[in-house]
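ugh ok so i messed up the first submission bc i forgot one of the chains. this is the corrected input, ALL of the components this time, i swear. 530 residues overall. if the numbers dont match what u have on ur side tell me asap before i send this to the collaborators (the ones from the other lab, u know who)
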Amino acid sequence: MTTRREALEMIGLATGSLLLCSCAGQALSGGGGAAHPAMAENQSPDFPWPYEKLDPEACAERAYQGFLKGHCMYGSFYGIIGELAEKKGAPYNTFPFKMMNIGAGGGAGWATLCGALNGSMLVFTLLDKNPDPLVDELFGWYQKEALPNYRPQKPRVEIAVTSISKSPLCHASVSRWCKAAKVKSFSLERDERCAWLTASVTKKTVEILNARMDNTFKSSYPLPNYVKECRSCHDKGGMIENTRGKMECGTCHSNADMGAEHPKI
Amino acid sequence: MTTRREALEMIGLATGSLLLCSCAGQALSGGGGAAHPAMAENQSPDFPWPYEKLDPEACAERAYQGFLKGHCMYGSFYGIIGELAEKKGAPYNTFPFKMMNIGAGGGAGWATLCGALNGSMLVFTLLDKNPDPLVDELFGWYQKEALPNYRPQKPRVEIAVTSISKSPLCHASVSRWCKAAKVKSFSLERDERCAWLTASVTKKTVEILNARMDNTFKSSYPLPNYVKECRSCHDKGGMIENTRGKMECGTCHSNADMGAEHPKI
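and heres the new structure output, hopefully the right one now
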Protein backbone atom coordinates (compact mmCIF):
# COMPACT_ATOMS: atom_id res chain seq x y z
CA MET A 1 0.00 0.00 0.00
CA THR A 2 1.31 3.45 -0.87
CA THR A 3 0.48 6.42 1.33
CA ARG A 4 -0.22 9.87 0.00
CA ARG A 5 3.10 11.05 1.43
CA GLU A 6 5.00 8.22 -0.21
CA ALA A 7 3.32 8.97 -3.53
CA LEU A 8 4.31 12.63 -3.23
CA GLU A 9 7.84 11.61 -2.34
CA MET A 10 8.03 9.38 -5.37
CA ILE A 11 6.86 12.19 -7.63
CA GLY A 12 9.57 14.34 -6.13
CA LEU A 13 12.15 11.62 -6.66
CA ALA A 14 11.06 11.14 -10.27
CA THR A 15 11.45 14.87 -10.83
CA GLY A 16 14.88 14.70 -9.29
CA SER A 17 15.78 11.85 -11.59
CA LEU A 18 14.73 13.85 -14.64
CA LEU A 19 16.87 16.76 -13.54
CA LEU A 20 19.79 14.41 -13.23
CA CYS A 21 19.40 12.29 -16.33
CA SER A 22 21.64 14.59 -18.36
CA CYS A 23 24.42 13.61 -15.97
CA ALA A 24 24.05 9.86 -16.59
CA GLY A 25 27.34 8.12 -17.04
CA GLN A 26 29.32 10.51 -14.90
CA ALA A 27 31.29 9.12 -12.02
CA LEU A 28 29.33 8.59 -8.82
CA SER A 29 30.39 7.38 -5.41
CA GLY A 30 27.74 4.71 -5.38
CA GLY A 31 27.78 1.64 -3.14
CA GLY A 32 30.50 0.66 -0.76
CA GLY A 33 32.77 -0.77 -3.38
CA ALA A 34 32.02 1.74 -6.11
CA ALA A 35 34.81 4.20 -6.79
CA HIS A 36 35.26 7.40 -8.70
CA PRO A 37 37.22 6.61 -11.86
CA ALA A 38 39.46 9.50 -10.82
CA MET A 39 40.54 7.40 -7.84
CA ALA A 40 42.73 5.30 -10.13
CA GLU A 41 45.31 8.06 -10.26
CA ASN A 42 45.32 7.94 -6.49
CA GLN A 43 47.06 4.58 -6.39
CA SER A 44 50.84 4.48 -6.14
CA PRO A 45 53.20 1.45 -6.28
CA ASP A 46 53.90 1.64 -2.55
CA PHE A 47 50.27 1.36 -1.56
CA PRO A 48 48.75 -0.70 -0.07
CA TRP A 49 51.50 -1.73 2.33
CA PRO A 50 52.48 -5.41 1.95
CA TYR A 51 50.94 -7.98 4.27
CA GLU A 52 52.47 -11.22 5.45
CA LYS A 53 50.49 -13.82 7.33
CA LEU A 54 50.31 -13.28 11.09
CA ASP A 55 49.23 -15.42 14.03
CA PRO A 56 45.64 -14.41 14.88
CA GLU A 57 46.06 -15.16 18.58
CA ALA A 58 49.32 -13.23 18.90
CA CYS A 59 47.60 -10.23 17.32
CA ALA A 60 44.57 -10.67 19.59
CA GLU A 61 46.85 -10.59 22.64
CA ARG A 62 48.58 -7.48 21.33
CA ALA A 63 45.18 -5.91 20.70
CA TYR A 64 44.12 -6.63 24.29
CA GLN A 65 47.26 -4.96 25.62
CA GLY A 66 46.71 -2.13 23.15
CA PHE A 67 43.19 -1.61 24.47
CA LEU A 68 44.57 -1.09 27.96
CA LYS A 69 46.83 1.65 26.59
CA GLY A 70 44.64 3.35 24.01
CA HIS A 71 41.16 1.81 23.94
CA CYS A 72 39.35 -0.11 21.23
CA MET A 73 40.36 1.52 17.94
CA TYR A 74 43.98 1.76 19.01
CA GLY A 75 43.83 -1.86 20.15
CA SER A 76 42.63 -3.41 16.91
CA PHE A 77 44.88 -1.22 14.75
CA TYR A 78 47.98 -1.68 16.90
CA GLY A 79 47.22 -5.37 17.32
CA ILE A 80 47.98 -5.93 13.63
CA ILE A 81 50.06 -3.00 12.34
CA GLY A 82 52.07 -3.06 15.59
CA GLU A 83 52.76 -6.75 15.06
CA LEU A 84 54.01 -6.03 11.53
CA ALA A 85 56.07 -3.12 12.86
CA GLU A 86 57.81 -5.41 15.35
CA LYS A 87 58.51 -8.05 12.69
CA LYS A 88 59.33 -5.84 9.71
CA GLY A 89 60.12 -2.31 10.86
CA ALA A 90 59.32 0.30 8.17
CA PRO A 91 56.90 1.39 6.86
CA TYR A 92 54.73 -0.05 9.64
CA ASN A 93 56.70 1.54 12.49
CA THR A 94 56.38 4.98 10.90
CA PHE A 95 52.65 5.08 11.54
CA PRO A 96 51.47 7.55 14.22
CA PHE A 97 49.59 4.86 16.15
CA LYS A 98 48.49 7.18 18.92
CA MET A 99 46.04 8.93 16.63
CA MET A 100 43.84 5.85 16.98
CA ASN A 101 43.09 6.65 20.63
CA ILE A 102 40.28 8.91 19.46
CA GLY A 103 38.11 6.00 18.33
CA ALA A 104 37.32 5.11 21.97
CA GLY A 105 33.64 4.70 22.71
CA GLY A 106 32.63 4.87 19.07
CA GLY A 107 34.56 8.11 18.45
CA ALA A 108 35.35 10.38 21.41
CA GLY A 109 32.52 8.68 23.31
CA TRP A 110 29.85 9.41 20.68
CA ALA A 111 29.03 5.69 20.35
CA THR A 112 28.95 5.71 16.54
CA LEU A 113 31.05 3.08 14.70
CA CYS A 114 32.56 0.55 17.16
CA GLY A 115 36.19 1.61 17.57
CA ALA A 116 37.48 -1.94 17.17
CA LEU A 117 35.75 -2.07 13.78
CA ASN A 118 37.02 1.38 12.80
CA GLY A 119 40.59 0.32 13.59
CA SER A 120 40.26 -2.96 11.68
CA MET A 121 38.64 -1.17 8.73
CA LEU A 122 41.73 1.02 8.54
CA VAL A 123 43.96 -2.06 8.76
CA PHE A 124 42.18 -3.58 5.75
CA THR A 125 42.50 -0.42 3.69
CA LEU A 126 46.18 -0.06 4.57
CA LEU A 127 47.03 -3.66 3.62
CA ASP A 128 44.69 -4.69 0.80
CA LYS A 129 43.99 -3.15 -2.58
CA ASN A 130 40.34 -4.25 -2.52
CA PRO A 131 39.33 -3.87 1.13
CA ASP A 132 35.55 -3.44 0.78
CA PRO A 133 34.62 -7.17 0.74
CA LEU A 134 36.87 -7.68 3.76
CA VAL A 135 35.08 -4.91 5.66
CA ASP A 136 31.73 -6.40 4.63
CA GLU A 137 32.78 -9.77 6.03
CA LEU A 138 34.04 -8.34 9.33
CA PHE A 139 31.07 -6.04 9.92
CA GLY A 140 28.61 -8.79 8.89
CA TRP A 141 30.25 -11.22 11.29
CA TYR A 142 30.23 -8.62 14.10
CA GLN A 143 26.49 -8.05 13.69
CA LYS A 144 25.64 -11.74 13.98
CA GLU A 145 28.25 -13.34 16.24
CA ALA A 146 27.89 -13.84 19.99
CA LEU A 147 30.75 -11.67 21.27
CA PRO A 148 33.24 -11.41 22.82
CA ASN A 149 34.53 -14.83 21.73
CA TYR A 150 38.22 -14.42 22.60
CA ARG A 151 39.52 -14.64 26.17
CA PRO A 152 42.92 -12.99 26.66
CA GLN A 153 45.59 -14.87 28.58
CA LYS A 154 45.56 -12.52 31.56
CA PRO A 155 42.17 -10.81 31.84
CA ARG A 156 41.48 -8.21 34.51
CA VAL A 157 38.15 -9.88 35.29
CA GLU A 158 36.33 -12.85 33.78
CA ILE A 159 33.60 -12.18 31.19
CA ALA A 160 31.09 -15.01 31.04
CA VAL A 161 28.29 -13.36 29.07
CA THR A 162 28.19 -12.82 25.30
CA SER A 163 25.67 -10.88 23.20
CA ILE A 164 24.77 -10.29 19.56
CA SER A 165 25.01 -6.61 18.67
CA LYS A 166 22.81 -6.63 15.52
CA SER A 167 24.71 -3.48 14.59
CA PRO A 168 28.25 -2.22 13.94
CA LEU A 169 27.51 0.76 16.19
CA CYS A 170 29.11 1.09 19.63
CA HIS A 171 25.86 2.27 21.19
CA ALA A 172 23.82 -0.81 20.23
CA SER A 173 26.73 -3.16 20.88
CA VAL A 174 27.37 -1.84 24.41
CA SER A 175 23.71 -1.58 25.41
CA ARG A 176 22.81 -5.08 24.21
CA TRP A 177 25.71 -6.53 26.14
CA CYS A 178 24.86 -4.52 29.29
CA LYS A 179 21.31 -5.86 29.11
CA ALA A 180 22.47 -9.46 28.64
CA ALA A 181 25.14 -9.26 31.34
CA LYS A 182 23.10 -7.10 33.72
CA VAL A 183 26.01 -4.79 34.41
CA LYS A 184 26.41 -1.04 34.07
CA SER A 185 27.80 0.59 30.97
CA PHE A 186 30.62 2.39 32.78
CA SER A 187 31.66 -0.58 34.94
CA LEU A 188 35.03 -2.29 34.81
CA GLU A 189 33.27 -5.41 33.58
CA ARG A 190 31.86 -3.58 30.52
CA ASP A 191 35.28 -2.06 29.89
CA GLU A 192 36.82 -5.54 30.05
CA ARG A 193 34.13 -6.86 27.71
CA CYS A 194 35.16 -4.20 25.18
CA ALA A 195 38.82 -5.23 25.62
CA TRP A 196 37.91 -8.86 24.88
CA LEU A 197 35.75 -7.68 21.99
CA THR A 198 38.70 -5.74 20.57
CA ALA A 199 40.81 -8.90 20.77
CA SER A 200 37.99 -10.91 19.15
CA VAL A 201 37.64 -8.43 16.28
CA THR A 202 41.41 -8.38 15.77
CA LYS A 203 41.60 -12.19 15.63
CA LYS A 204 38.82 -12.27 13.04
CA THR A 205 40.50 -9.51 11.04
CA VAL A 206 43.76 -11.48 10.86
CA GLU A 207 41.89 -14.65 9.87
CA ILE A 208 40.29 -12.72 7.00
CA LEU A 209 43.66 -11.25 5.92
CA ASN A 210 45.28 -14.70 6.07
CA ALA A 211 42.49 -16.23 3.99
CA ARG A 212 42.99 -13.46 1.45
CA MET A 213 46.71 -14.30 1.29
CA ASP A 214 45.88 -17.99 0.79
CA ASN A 215 43.32 -17.13 -1.88
CA THR A 216 40.68 -18.89 0.20
CA PHE A 217 38.71 -15.80 1.27
CA LYS A 218 35.00 -15.93 0.60
CA SER A 219 32.12 -14.01 2.09
CA SER A 220 30.25 -15.88 4.84
CA TYR A 221 28.07 -13.04 6.08
CA PRO A 222 25.90 -11.77 3.24
CA LEU A 223 23.23 -9.20 4.00
CA PRO A 224 20.26 -10.79 5.82
CA ASN A 225 17.25 -11.43 3.59
CA TYR A 226 15.05 -8.94 5.40
CA VAL A 227 17.66 -6.22 4.93
CA LYS A 228 17.78 -7.09 1.23
CA GLU A 229 14.00 -6.71 1.19
CA CYS A 230 14.22 -3.22 2.73
CA ARG A 231 16.92 -2.30 0.25
CA SER A 232 14.86 -3.50 -2.71
CA CYS A 233 12.74 -0.34 -2.27
CA HIS A 234 15.03 2.03 -0.37
CA ASP A 235 18.55 1.46 -1.70
CA LYS A 236 20.28 1.74 -5.06
CA GLY A 237 17.90 1.02 -7.93
CA GLY A 238 14.84 0.73 -5.66
CA MET A 239 11.57 2.53 -6.35
CA ILE A 240 12.17 5.00 -3.52
CA GLU A 241 16.03 4.96 -3.37
CA ASN A 242 16.21 7.33 -0.44
CA THR A 243 18.91 5.71 1.64
CA ARG A 244 22.20 3.86 1.64
CA GLY A 245 23.93 1.45 3.97
CA LYS A 246 24.31 -2.18 4.97
CA MET A 247 23.44 -2.02 8.67
CA GLU A 248 20.61 -4.12 10.11
CA CYS A 249 17.43 -2.05 9.61
CA GLY A 250 15.33 -3.37 12.49
CA THR A 251 17.85 -2.32 15.12
CA CYS A 252 16.59 1.27 14.82
CA HIS A 253 13.41 1.02 12.72
CA SER A 254 10.38 -0.76 14.16
CA ASN A 255 6.90 -1.58 12.87
CA ALA A 256 5.43 0.67 15.58
CA ASP A 257 7.55 3.53 14.35
CA MET A 258 6.92 3.16 10.63
CA GLY A 259 3.14 3.05 10.79
CA ALA A 260 0.49 0.69 9.53
CA GLU A 261 0.97 1.40 5.81
CA HIS A 262 4.57 0.22 5.72
CA PRO A 263 5.18 -3.50 5.11
CA LYS A 264 6.00 -5.33 8.34
CA ILE A 265 9.66 -6.00 9.03
CA MET B 1 6.39 4.67 36.20
CA THR B 2 8.56 1.57 36.29
CA THR B 3 7.55 -1.53 34.36
CA ARG B 4 8.08 -5.06 35.63
CA ARG B 5 10.82 -5.56 33.04
CA GLU B 6 12.59 -2.36 34.04
CA ALA B 7 12.42 -3.37 37.69
CA LEU B 8 13.91 -6.76 36.88
CA GLU B 9 16.62 -5.09 34.83
CA MET B 10 17.47 -2.78 37.70
CA ILE B 11 17.76 -5.71 40.09
CA GLY B 12 20.10 -7.34 37.59
CA LEU B 13 22.13 -4.18 37.29
CA ALA B 14 22.37 -3.85 41.07
CA THR B 15 23.63 -7.44 41.26
CA GLY B 16 26.17 -6.65 38.59
CA SER B 17 27.31 -3.61 40.56
CA LEU B 18 27.84 -5.72 43.66
CA LEU B 19 29.94 -8.16 41.71
CA LEU B 20 32.04 -5.28 40.52
CA CYS B 21 32.43 -3.24 43.67
CA SER B 22 35.65 -4.99 44.60
CA CYS B 23 37.14 -3.51 41.45
CA ALA B 24 36.30 0.10 42.32
CA GLY B 25 39.12 2.50 41.69
CA GLN B 26 40.64 0.58 38.81
CA ALA B 27 41.08 2.33 35.48
CA LEU B 28 38.00 2.44 33.28
CA SER B 29 37.50 3.72 29.77
CA GLY B 30 34.58 5.83 30.79
CA GLY B 31 33.19 8.78 28.84
CA GLY B 32 34.58 10.20 25.66
CA GLY B 33 37.33 12.14 27.27
CA ALA B 34 38.15 9.68 30.04
CA ALA B 35 41.40 7.83 29.53
CA HIS B 36 43.15 4.83 31.03
CA PRO B 37 45.94 6.10 33.28
CA ALA B 38 48.18 3.70 31.38
CA MET B 39 47.65 5.88 28.30
CA ALA B 40 50.05 8.46 29.66
CA GLU B 41 53.02 6.29 28.72
CA ASN B 42 51.59 6.22 25.24
CA GLN B 43 52.45 9.88 24.61
CA SER B 44 55.77 10.73 23.02
CA PRO B 45 57.34 14.17 22.41
CA ASP B 46 56.69 13.97 18.67
CA PHE B 47 52.98 13.48 19.07
CA PRO B 48 50.65 15.15 18.30
CA TRP B 49 52.05 16.61 15.12
CA PRO B 50 52.35 20.40 15.25
CA TYR B 51 49.59 22.53 13.76
CA GLU B 52 49.91 25.96 12.24
CA LYS B 53 46.90 28.04 11.31
CA LEU B 54 45.47 27.34 7.86
CA ASP B 55 42.99 29.09 5.60
CA PRO B 56 39.60 27.37 6.11
CA GLU B 57 38.47 28.04 2.54
CA ALA B 58 41.70 26.78 0.97
CA CYS B 59 41.31 23.56 2.95
CA ALA B 60 37.65 23.31 1.97
CA GLU B 61 38.60 23.57 -1.71
CA ARG B 62 41.29 20.92 -1.24
CA ALA B 63 38.74 18.72 0.53
CA TYR B 64 36.32 19.08 -2.38
CA GLN B 65 39.01 18.02 -4.84
CA GLY B 66 39.98 15.25 -2.43
CA PHE B 67 36.40 13.98 -2.40
CA LEU B 68 36.49 13.61 -6.17
CA LYS B 69 39.59 11.42 -5.82
CA GLY B 70 38.88 9.42 -2.68
CA HIS B 71 35.43 10.24 -1.28
CA CYS B 72 34.40 11.87 1.98
CA MET B 73 36.85 10.60 4.61
CA TYR B 74 39.80 11.04 2.27
CA GLY B 75 38.51 14.51 1.40
CA SER B 76 38.31 15.91 4.91
CA PHE B 77 41.59 14.32 6.00
CA TYR B 78 43.51 15.29 2.89
CA GLY B 79 41.94 18.74 2.91
CA ILE B 80 43.88 19.57 6.07
CA ILE B 81 46.82 17.17 6.40
CA GLY B 82 47.44 17.49 2.64
CA GLU B 83 47.54 21.28 3.02
CA LEU B 84 50.11 20.96 5.82
CA ALA B 85 52.08 18.47 3.71
CA GLU B 86 52.27 20.95 0.85
CA LYS B 87 53.37 23.78 3.15
CA LYS B 88 55.65 21.90 5.54
CA GLY B 89 56.64 18.54 4.04
CA ALA B 90 57.44 15.93 6.72
CA PRO B 91 55.92 14.44 8.79
CA TYR B 92 52.63 15.31 7.07
CA ASN B 93 53.69 14.05 3.64
CA THR B 94 54.68 10.66 5.09
CA PHE B 95 51.08 9.79 5.88
CA PRO B 96 49.50 7.04 3.72
CA PHE B 97 46.55 9.23 2.73
CA LYS B 98 44.99 6.63 0.47
CA MET B 99 43.94 4.53 3.43
CA MET B 100 41.22 7.10 4.04
CA ASN B 101 39.36 6.02 0.90
CA ILE B 102 37.68 3.28 2.92
CA GLY B 103 35.54 5.76 4.88
CA ALA B 104 33.32 6.33 1.84
CA GLY B 105 29.62 5.97 2.51
CA GLY B 106 30.08 5.74 6.26
CA GLY B 107 32.71 2.98 6.02
CA ALA B 108 32.77 0.80 2.88
CA GLY B 109 29.17 1.82 2.23
CA TRP B 110 27.86 0.68 5.63
CA ALA B 111 26.49 4.18 6.37
CA THR B 112 27.83 4.29 9.94
CA LEU B 113 29.88 7.36 10.97
CA CYS B 114 29.86 10.04 8.23
CA GLY B 115 33.20 9.69 6.48
CA ALA B 116 33.82 13.44 6.50
CA LEU B 117 33.48 13.36 10.30
CA ASN B 118 35.67 10.28 10.61
CA GLY B 119 38.40 11.99 8.60
CA SER B 120 38.16 15.20 10.63
CA MET B 121 38.13 13.25 13.89
CA LEU B 122 41.45 11.72 12.85
CA VAL B 123 42.77 15.18 11.94
CA PHE B 124 41.95 16.43 15.44
CA THR B 125 43.64 13.48 17.12
CA LEU B 126 46.73 13.81 14.93
CA LEU B 127 47.13 17.55 15.64
CA ASP B 128 45.84 18.21 19.16
CA LYS B 129 46.75 16.69 22.50
CA ASN B 130 43.19 17.03 23.83
CA PRO B 131 41.02 16.32 20.80
CA ASP B 132 37.80 15.16 22.50
CA PRO B 133 36.23 18.63 23.02
CA LEU B 134 37.06 19.47 19.40
CA VAL B 135 35.29 16.32 18.18
CA ASP B 136 32.32 17.15 20.44
CA GLU B 137 32.10 20.61 18.88
CA LEU B 138 32.31 19.33 15.30
CA PHE B 139 29.84 16.48 15.76
CA GLY B 140 27.46 18.71 17.74
CA TRP B 141 27.58 21.32 14.97
CA TYR B 142 27.03 18.67 12.29
CA GLN B 143 23.90 17.38 14.02
CA LYS B 144 22.30 20.82 14.20
CA GLU B 145 23.52 22.81 11.20
CA ALA B 146 21.72 23.11 7.86
CA LEU B 147 24.27 21.49 5.54
CA PRO B 148 26.03 21.67 3.18
CA ASN B 149 26.92 25.30 3.83
CA TYR B 150 30.03 25.60 1.64
CA ARG B 151 29.85 25.93 -2.15
CA PRO B 152 33.09 24.98 -3.90
CA GLN B 153 34.44 27.27 -6.61
CA LYS B 154 33.79 24.85 -9.45
CA PRO B 155 30.95 22.49 -8.52
CA ARG B 156 29.85 19.68 -10.85
CA VAL B 157 26.21 20.63 -10.28
CA GLU B 158 24.53 23.24 -8.10
CA ILE B 159 23.13 22.16 -4.72
CA ALA B 160 20.35 24.44 -3.54
CA VAL B 161 18.84 22.34 -0.73
CA THR B 162 20.24 21.94 2.78
CA SER B 163 19.11 19.62 5.57
CA ILE B 164 19.76 19.02 9.27
CA SER B 165 21.02 15.49 9.88
CA LYS B 166 20.18 15.20 13.61
CA SER B 167 22.87 12.53 13.67
CA PRO B 168 26.58 12.03 12.92
CA LEU B 169 25.67 8.87 10.98
CA CYS B 170 25.92 8.72 7.19
CA HIS B 171 22.62 6.86 6.88
CA ALA B 172 20.53 9.51 8.64
CA SER B 173 22.45 12.36 7.06
CA VAL B 174 22.00 11.06 3.51
CA SER B 175 18.36 10.04 3.90
CA ARG B 176 17.30 13.33 5.47
CA TRP B 177 18.93 15.25 2.67
CA CYS B 178 17.40 13.00 0.00
CA LYS B 179 13.99 13.61 1.50
CA ALA B 180 14.50 17.37 1.65
CA ALA B 181 15.96 17.61 -1.84
CA LYS B 182 13.68 14.98 -3.40
CA VAL B 183 16.53 13.27 -5.20
CA LYS B 184 17.75 9.69 -5.16
CA SER B 185 20.48 8.50 -2.85
CA PHE B 186 22.73 7.22 -5.63
CA SER B 187 22.31 10.24 -7.91
CA LEU B 188 25.06 12.60 -8.98
CA GLU B 189 23.29 15.36 -7.08
CA ARG B 190 23.51 13.41 -3.78
CA ASP B 191 27.14 12.63 -4.49
CA GLU B 192 27.79 16.32 -5.08
CA ARG B 193 25.93 17.18 -1.87
CA CYS B 194 28.33 14.89 0.00
CA ALA B 195 31.28 16.59 -1.71
CA TRP B 196 30.01 20.00 -0.57
CA LEU B 197 29.34 18.53 2.88
CA THR B 198 32.92 17.28 3.03
CA ALA B 199 34.14 20.77 2.19
CA SER B 200 31.77 22.25 4.80
CA VAL B 201 33.02 19.87 7.52
CA THR B 202 36.63 20.59 6.60
CA LYS B 203 36.09 24.35 6.80
CA LYS B 204 34.50 23.99 10.23
CA THR B 205 37.32 21.70 11.37
CA VAL B 206 39.96 24.28 10.41
CA GLU B 207 37.98 27.04 12.14
CA ILE B 208 37.97 24.95 15.32
CA LEU B 209 41.71 24.23 15.03
CA ASN B 210 42.45 27.92 14.42
CA ALA B 211 40.37 28.93 17.45
CA ARG B 212 42.32 26.43 19.52
CA MET B 213 45.58 28.00 18.32
CA ASP B 214 44.28 31.47 19.23
CA ASN B 215 43.12 30.21 22.63
CA THR B 216 39.60 31.33 21.74
CA PHE B 217 38.03 27.88 21.35
CA LYS B 218 34.88 27.29 23.35
CA SER B 219 32.10 24.79 22.95
CA SER B 220 29.02 26.14 21.16
CA TYR B 221 27.15 22.88 20.71
CA PRO B 222 26.50 21.31 24.10
CA LEU B 223 24.29 18.22 24.27
CA PRO B 224 20.62 19.13 23.75
CA ASN B 225 18.58 19.24 26.94
CA TYR B 226 16.40 16.30 26.01
CA VAL B 227 19.49 14.17 25.36
CA LYS B 228 20.77 15.19 28.79
CA GLU B 229 17.44 14.07 30.20
CA CYS B 230 17.75 10.63 28.55
CA ARG B 231 21.30 10.36 29.82
CA SER B 232 20.27 11.24 33.37
CA CYS B 233 18.81 7.71 33.63
CA HIS B 234 20.66 5.77 30.92
CA ASP B 235 24.25 7.07 30.89
CA LYS B 236 27.09 7.26 33.37
CA GLY B 237 25.84 7.58 36.93
CA GLY B 238 22.18 7.19 35.96
CA MET B 239 19.81 4.79 37.72
CA ILE B 240 19.81 2.41 34.77
CA GLU B 241 23.25 3.21 33.23
CA ASN B 242 22.80 0.81 30.35
CA THR B 243 24.18 2.86 27.48
CA ARG B 244 26.80 5.33 26.35
CA GLY B 245 27.03 7.94 23.64
CA LYS B 246 26.31 11.53 22.70
CA MET B 247 24.19 11.08 19.58
CA GLU B 248 20.67 12.50 19.37
CA CYS B 249 18.37 9.87 20.92
CA GLY B 250 15.15 10.64 19.07
CA THR B 251 16.67 10.03 15.65
CA CYS B 252 16.34 6.27 16.26
CA HIS B 253 14.18 5.96 19.40
CA SER B 254 10.55 7.04 19.24
CA ASN B 255 7.71 7.20 21.75
CA ALA B 256 5.82 4.61 19.69
CA ASP B 257 8.76 2.28 19.94
CA MET B 258 9.47 2.65 23.64
CA GLY B 259 5.96 2.01 24.92
CA ALA B 260 3.54 3.87 27.13
CA GLU B 261 5.48 3.41 30.39
CA HIS B 262 8.57 5.27 29.18
CA PRO B 263 8.63 9.06 29.66
CA LYS B 264 7.82 10.89 26.43
CA ILE B 265 10.75 12.23 24.44
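quick check: Chain B has two domains: 56-213, 223-265. that seems consistent at least. Confidence is low (pLDDT under 50) at residues 1-45 of chain B.
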